[in-house]
Design goal:
Blueprint: E1 31-36, E2 40-48, E3 54-61, H1 63-74, E4 78-85, H2 88-99, E5 102-110, E6 117-123, E7 126-132, H3 148-151, E8 154-160, H4 169-182, E9 186-190, H5 201-209, E10 217-221, H6 222-229, H7 234-243, E11 248-252, E12 258-262, E13 265-269, H8 282-296, H9 305-323, H10 335-343
Parallel strand pairs: 1-4, 1-8, 2-6, 4-5, 8-9, 9-10, 10-11
Antiparallel strand pairs: 2-3, 6-7, 11-12, 12-13
Length: 350
């Protein structure tokens, strides 16, 4: 198996060669955000051929990679931990993440498994997924391949539930959570439920809920909240999750914005009116914007309800711009674009 640079055990603490940032990030740490999980190809439906066959466009994606891209595009310092195949798709992903400003020192290039693929059909801007992942490279990440230098030098460690579907990636994820938390990182979690990747909803709910006890900040959709804990009302669901120990819970509501619960209070933050083209990466864009704004806040204020509402409003702006474009990673906006939309929402940020 090939790796991206010199092999390291998880006990090594040096930041990967070629990835050491020039100075600290906006958080004061070497990396503002490190994420572990899937980097994959989103083959997004893109019209039809002359013969009437559906065409699919190759886009870099994967929820953790999308979140990193959003934070990086806004000005944060980010790094990825995960595994792709040493194939045309894996090399494309590595270049795409580097072009987005993401450190790929924790990306394993494996010659024995193929890069995970997701085919995304679009209907009215909404998505239908079909995965090529039996197994995909992302599920094959081992604990020994996780980069301790990144985990121990970040302000926030982020992960999703796709790395919990299969071993050895599940154990690698839990080991990374423990290491990052022990080093003082806050833990961010996005369940990002994909039904086709689980044996059934009961097993999915059990596995997805297991990391909640370790989670500081949770982003979950209204549909996921109902599926996981059986509560349909977003405010009730968010409050229940906070009572389980999550310090801040955000329930995304699609075009209607988001509901954020922190400090015993909930705020509903409306979304921005914008013409949706492709919803791929919308939730990830929102969460990247949310986390970026979170990192800019004073530490004493980060979990205050009013501050959380501000983070959500900014996240809504980032997500709105993302869905007005095609693709996930390529669609992430700059800080200037997000701030312009907040200033002039009626003009779409112009």
């Amino acid at each position: 198996m090939k790796t991206n640079g010199t092999s390291r055990s998880p006990r090594d603490k040096a930041i990967p060669t070629g990835c050491s940032p020039a100075g600290a990030g906006i958080s004061g740490k070497a990396y503002d955000l490190v994420a572990l999980g899937e980097a994959l190809i989103d083959f997004t439906e893109a019209g039809t051929s002359e013969n009437g066959r559906r065409l699919f466009e190759q886009n870099p994606g994967g929820a953790p990679a999308n979140v990193l891209s959003a934070v990086s595009k806004l000005g944060g310092k980010t790094a990825f931990i995960g595994k792709v195949g040493d194939d045309m798709h894996g090399r494309f992903l590595k270049t795409a993440l580097q072009d987005a400003g993401i450190c790929t020192g924790g990306m394993i290039m494996a010659d024995d498994v193929f890069t995970t693929l997701a085919f995304v059909a679009l209907t009215g801007g909404e998505r239908e997924f079909s995965f090529a992942r039996k197994p995909g490279a992302d599920t094959c990440l081992t604990e020994s391949e996780t980069d301790a230098g990144l985990l121990e030098n970040c302000a926030i460690f982020h992960f999703g539930s796709l790395s919990l579907t299969d071993e050895p990636a599940r154990s690698a994820t839990y080991a990374a959570i423990r290491r990052a938390k022990a080093a003082g990182a806050l833990i961010s979690y996005d369940p990002n439920y994909r039904a086709g990747l689980w044996p059934g909803p009961a097993e999915a709910a059990r596995r997805i809920c297991e990391p909640l006890a370790e989670t500081d900040m949770l982003k979950i959709s209204d549909e996921e909240a109902e599926m996981l804990i059986g509560i349909s009302d977003p405010a009730d669901a968010a409050s229940a999750l906070c009572r389980e120990g999550v310090r801040m819970t955000v329930v995304t509501l699609g075009k209607h914005g988001a509901l954020v619960c922190a400090g015993g209070r909930c705020h509903k933050i409306p979304g921005f009116e914008i013409q949706a083209v492709d919803s791929t990466g919308a939730g990830d864009a929102f969460w990247g914007g949310f986390l970026y704004r979170f990192l800019l806040a004073e530490k004493a204020d980060r979990f205050e309800p009013d501050a959380a509402a501000d983070f959500a409003r900014f996240g809504n702006a980032v997500a709105a711009i993302c869905v007005s474009r095609r693709g996930g990673i390529p669609a992430m906006p700059s800080l200037r674009e997000a701030e312009a939309l907040i200033r002039c929402p009626e003009q779409g940020g112009t």
